[in-house]
Amino acid sequence: MPANDLSNSPSPPQADAQIPPQVLVLDGGFGSQLEALGYAVNNYFKKSEVWSGGALIEAPELVRKCHQSFINAGADIIETNTYHLCIQKLCECRGYSNEQAESIVKLAVQIAREAISSSGRSVQLVGSVGPYATYLRDGSEYTGEYVKKPDFNEQIIIDYYLSQCRPLISAGIRTLVFETIPTLKEVECVGKVLDQLGPEVCAWIVSTCQVKIILIKGKVLDNKPKQKLFI
């Protein structure tokens, strides 16, 4: 075919052709990996009820090794070890001041950053925030039963999330992941929290669902775009 004959050449891509989304690898279960490295998660859980977050107090070097193992396995995104690190539980069970409890959250951010820095790879760090059920410690992140209790109060949920998010943001985190949220009511609370945190903070939400986008309590999430919320 002559060099200037393009009649049989493949058509060039259209200007508005959709580019396939990039696939990013997230890290794995932190508690399981800590146990694989020899840390007795369940023993500490019985004492302070912050589960894998206890390693930040008792074995911070193992926390670093966990992050490093996920990065070495190819993770493009790692989460801070703060899912179960409930500020209020640290104060109640350990006798910490609020400032002391927040310092443990900030330590989690520091350790994760150090693991990324030592890896030599470009890895994104996001702040992990567990549901209100991590304060209740009754497994209700998989049932959502607490929203049916007579004393359920939306403001309590909002205050919980603000207390968990603010030390992460103070430590420089700008992307949060809200995990295992079982009810639409709690998702709505997260939206109100993000409004208070400001436009510079982004987030995604992970819900515990039965089928597709149906939440545990039977509510169906609509498909309307919500600023800063990615479900």
From TrEMBL:
Keywords: Metal-binding, Methyltransferase, Transferase, Zinc
Biochemical pathway: Amino-acid biosynthesis; L-methionine biosynthesis via de novo pathway
Domain Hcy-binding: 12-231
Metal-binding listed as a keyword: yes
Lineage of origin: Eukaryota, Metazoa, Ecdysozoa, Nematoda, Chromadorea
PANTHER family reported in the protein's UniProt record: HOMOCYSTEINE S-METHYLTRANSFERASE-LIKE ISOFORM 1, ZGC:172121
One annotated GO molecular function: S-adenosylmethionine-homocysteine S-methyltransferase activity
The protein's name: Hcy-binding domain-containing protein
